[in-house]
Amino acid sequence: MIAIYLLIFIVIAQRLVEVIIANQNASWIKSQGGYEVGREHYRYLVLLHTLFFVSLLIEVTVRPPTFATWIAIPFVIFLIAQVGRIWALTSLGRFWNTRIMVLPGAKVVAKGPYRFIRHPNYAIVITEILVFPLVFQAYWTAVIFTILNAIILSIRIRVEENALREVTNYESEFEKRGRFVPSYEE
User: Where, by residue number, does the polypeptide cross the bilayer (predicted)?
Assistant: First the structure.
């Protein structure tokens, strides 16, 4: 049981470090003339992620997982998602944030996984919220928070894309590249 809690707390610590980085990046974007959009729904995103970990901890405590060889599958998927997360975050650099921060006149990042899809970080979060609880056989957490996350992201992505269309080259960059197909044009 200690190993289970340890793994969950390592992921929580990772997310807390990401919040610190996001706050530093937000300060930098603001210093460059950028601003936040979608502030209204951000609190629900934070609440969702907080309750996700609370639910996961409660579920593994109330119903401790049993050893099953199949849990290696969601665990490996989760580990691959972590590599994808790092790739997406480092590709965005100072533009990565947990908030929707926009910088008027900036060129959108279209390198790394952003060459292939518009929102790789969201695809990774969707994957994590689904598979991480499955590692611990926390089925309720996986199902409930996957649905809630889909609702929040349906709002967030729309807000983010509209803001980026208004103040950056977002639309022209992704029209050229497509949503899911990489472009070989330069």
Answer: 41-60, 67-88, 122-155
